[in-house]
Amino acid sequence: MVEQCKKGNRTTTTFSSVGWNEIQKDFNKKTGCNYTDMQLKNKFQKLRKVHKELKNACKQMGFSMDPSRKVILAEDDEWEAYLRGHPNAKNLRTIGCPLWDELQIIFGDATSEDKDMSLCPSRDRKDNAKWTRKEERIFVELMVEQCKKGNRTTTAFSSTGWKEIQKDFNKKTGCNYTDMQLKNKFQKLRLLHKEFKNACKETGFSMDPFRKVILADDGDVWEAYVRDHPNAKNLQTTGCQLWDELCIIFGDITTIGEYTKSFRQEDEDTSEDEDTFEAESINSLSDSDEHQTTRHISFGSLDPLLTLDAMDDTSQEKSPISPKRAITLKDRKRKKFNNLKAFSEACMAFTLESMYRINKDRKKRLTSVPLHDPYPLSRCIEVLNNAPCLDAKLYGKAMNLCMHSYWREVICQVPRELISQVIESAKEP
């Protein structure tokens, strides 16, 4: 069908009669089948539906497509809610659409320059990006900066945030990644963060605070967990090296949102107190001074300027005070500024307190709970010293490999007479 599209035998909705005749003739010749044109057209319609389902799923908020496997990436709860309204999309997360690039050509999207072009990952546009560790770290650091700037919404970054991330990332790395490529990487990092966080909550599992990998008390328990959660198979070896930064990107927004809600509720209660105060009449000069001073000091604790205003109000006894004094517009603006300032200070205090507790817990684990490594470096050195046919070059390469737990286990377990061959064929990570 792609060949017929290139020959110009593709109409607006289907192929011409010449196109279908050539497709049927060449297909039966190559496969040895004897399919009729009706059978081929039925398959054509099924492929159209698969293409349409995947394209519609990619447009959903929070969904993206893995450019290499051609499957949908989404959170479990969001995907279940989507399936209730689109039952035909149930296989898009597992099987996906391996022939997505070709179907884009057949059904028109790949040749048109419409807005759906961003959904088509092609090799010419380098959508199959291969991320290095350096590029991944730069990408995460840029996202943390946008979080600090306030360009992080409840589920993703704002359009301004994504533009700045894309611009700074391509400038620092020399790449030319599109916003879709960056959003796909964002979804993969979200899934990694979720898998790692869920694994830490399981009984018998803990996190190595230094290497950012999962520690399991029982290997059989970990194998059983991996069978139920296949995406967690690398959490014991590769782990999540950018865990601290991902917690800022994916973790803090919920807590801040809850704090914002409680702050707004407190602000509404304060507004009700203002209305009550406006309605009250001041019967005497002393009563009004005492009432006004108490009000100013209660909010002045958040701002030194208001505390000084309260002192000025009480010291100027000769100034006339109206029998019915209401809060002026200037007082309202000043009070609103105070509340916002108090909220920002509280957010800063909350962040500093969280960082202090994390560092305290990390130091406590490093000092009080020794990390158990079944294949320590000293054991690897002893094995290498006794290994035959190991020259200085291979010995140095082996020491570099021993910096990783995976290779320490391999060196300790492999027969000694084969160590030199294994190290020589190994690729340094």
UniProtKB/TrEMBL annotation:
Compositional bias (Acidic residues) spans? 266-278
The record places domain Myb/SANT-like at: 1-82, 130-225
The record's annotation in CDD domains points to:
SANT
Q: Region Disordered: start and end of each range?
A: 263-293
InterPro entries membership: LIMYB (IPR045026), Myb/SANT-like_dom (IPR024752), SANT/Myb (IPR001005)
The source's domain of life comes to Eukaryota
Q: What is this protein called?
A: L10-interacting MYB domain-containing protein-like isoform X2
Q: Which organism is it from?
A: Nelumbo nucifera
